[in-house]
TrEMBL record:
PANTHER family: PROTEIN PHOSPHATASE. SUPFAM superfamilies: PP2C-like. The lineage of its organism: Eukaryota, Viridiplantae, Streptophyta, Embryophyta, Tracheophyta. Its EC number is 3.1.3.16. Residues 41-331 form the PPM-type phosphatase domain. Belongs to the PP2C family. Keywords: Hydrolase, Magnesium, Manganese, Metal-binding, Protein phosphatase. It holds the Pfam family PP2C. It comes from Lupinus luteus (European yellow lupine). This is protein-serine/threonine phosphatase. It is an enzyme of class 3 (hydrolase).
Length: 482
């Protein structure tokens, strides 16, 4: 009897609720599924390339987790490494950069805190990778010899000499709708968004084109000029001397001045629910194609084929004069049921999801509310915080951007330390060290008077020396690259 009363009571309650909100269960489930799909987009990608020197390497990793074993913390990483003067630096960076970045992020923090910590961790990871590459020896190079194809005799010598090679690095981290890009050198990442708006997410560190970097290099003790042949006028692009490198930032290149720094430009943006397409490529692509032409060459094409089309267009425009490597990554909503608006030119996203549409525009069905929200005109709402900038179409929110080459400035002053043990953790290499071990008050402004709180970031002895060298505070090895 009691069971029957309970069943009757529950039945009456359900009927009452149904009268208040008469929404079919299937509709409610559909709403929940659509909401989840909008929050977590699909990531589709493709890669293509042609080798001339064989010094380009890339990384595509879609099974990264902020918390190991927790599928809800999944994120993806894509990267291009364009080596020069050999392949050793590019290989080493591909093998170690991501782990060095992730090791600089505190454990057991929320997703929002993780994303906020990521830009600083990228800086620490790039610098740590550069320091480790300088220290690596012949045995590590022999290990690489067994894993990678050596294209030329010069590459073999580079693997044994190792430390004289260098590489650009463009690393892209995609966590749901948030895209974070860190780069040194002249490999590039562009973003193609709804409406055909193309945005550059990196900064080229070429001395020829970057006046701010030229001033930094000369202020740190380097010289900038063109190649001088037999006392005549300078020829070719602007280079940094000693060494003759055209770039002002890279990983490796330890035979040139240490004012060639591994500190990356970092930009973090949040895409709208439209998603977007990322094109990440080495300079073999960008020397042949503009940002807009690269984006236009592959619109409406799935990522795998799109990468091949970009390489093909670069080859058609300039020929194979350099290694050309291209990654195309699409961040798109998981719900593909988004019909094109009648009479309106299909967007990039619509083309990606549905392919080319016919010219038939006889569909008289009124667009749904969801369709109007996604494809209709955007409002002029400017209530976001002043620190957050929007692109010209209002669909990409800029969360963070910094390109300073001053390491202490990039790493900040709030690195934690164990107050009970008085042990400090180096902001770069993540090694614990007592503040007084092998450190001098004269070695840098990171010691504060006892009456004041600690002012970070803290650097261990080796990382402090690296920081001073990058800022021109101690002599660098002055050798000239042949």
């Amino acid at each position: 009897m009691m069971s029957g009363k309970v069943e009757l009571s529950l039945s009456s309650r359900m009927k009452s609720q149904a009268q208040v909100a008469a929404v079919p269960l299937g509709t409610l489930i559909g709403r929940e599924l659509r909401t989840e799909k909008v929050e977590k987009p699909f990531v589709k990608f493709g890669q293509s390339g042609l080798a001339r020197k064989g010094e380009d390497y890339f990384l595509m990793k879609t099974d990264c987790y902020r918390i190991p074993g927790d599928s809800s913390t999944l994120f993806s990483v894509f990267a291009i490494f364009d080596g020069h003067n050999g392949i050793s630096a590019a290989i080493f960076t591909k093998e170690n950069l991501l782990n060095n970045v992730l090791s600089a992020i505190p454990q057991d923090i929320s997703r929002d805190a993780w994303l906020q910590a990521l830009p600083r961790a990228l800086v620490a990871g790039f610098v740590k990778t550069d320091i480790e590459f300088q220290r690596k020896g012949t045995f590590q190079n022999l290990f690489f010899l067994g894993r990678y194809v050596v294209h030329t005799y010069a590459d073999t010598l580079s693997l044994f000499a190792g430390e004289t090679s260098g590489t650009t690095a463009t690393l892209v981290v995609i966590d749901e709708w948030t895209v974070t890009v860190a780069s040194v050198g002249d490999s590039r990442c562009i973003l193609d968004t709804q409406g055909g708006v193309v945005s550059l997410l990196t900064v080229d560190h070429r001395l020829e084109e970057n006046e701010e970097e030229r001033e930094r290099v000369t202020a740190s003790g380097g010289e900038v000029g063109r190649l001088n042949v037999y006392g005549g006028n300078g020829v070719g692009p602007l280079r940094c001397w000693p060494g003759g490198l055209c770039l002002s930032r890279s990983i490796g290149d330890t035979d040139v001045g240490e004012f060639i720094v591994p500190i990356p430009h970092v930009k973090q943006v949040k895409l709208s629910n439209y998603g977007g397409r990322l094109i990440i490529a080495s300079d073999g692509i960008w020397d042949a194609l503009s940002n807009d032409s690269a984006a236009q060459s592959c619109r409406g094409i799935q990522a795998e084929l799109a990468a091949k089309l970009v390489v093909k267009e670069a080859l058609r425009s300039r020929g194979l004069k350099d290694d050309t490597t291209c990654l195309v990554v699409d961040v798109i909503p998981s719900d593909p049921v988004l019909p094109p608006i009648p009479g309106k030119k299909p967007s990039m996203l619509t083309s990606l999801l549905f392919g080319k549409t016919s010219g038939n525009t006889t569909n008289k069905k009124k667009p749904s509310k969801l369709t109007s929200l996604l494809f209709g005109k955007k409002s002029g709402n400017n209530t976001t915080k002043a620190a957050n900038k929007l692109s010209s179409v209002g669909v990409v929110e800029e969360l963070f951007e910094e390109g300073s080459a001053m390491l202490a400035e990039r790493l900040g002053k709030d690195f934690p330390f164990n107050k009970n043990s008085e042990i400090f953790r180096c902001a770069v290499c993540q090694m614990d060290q007592l503040p007084g071990d092998d450190l001098s008050v004269k070695s840098g402004p990171f010691f504060s008077p006892s009456s004041k709180p600690w002012e970070g970031p803290f650097f261990c002895t080796n990382c402090q020396k690296k920081k001073d060298a990058m800022e021109g505070k101690r002599p660098s090895r002055r050798t000239v690259r042949a």
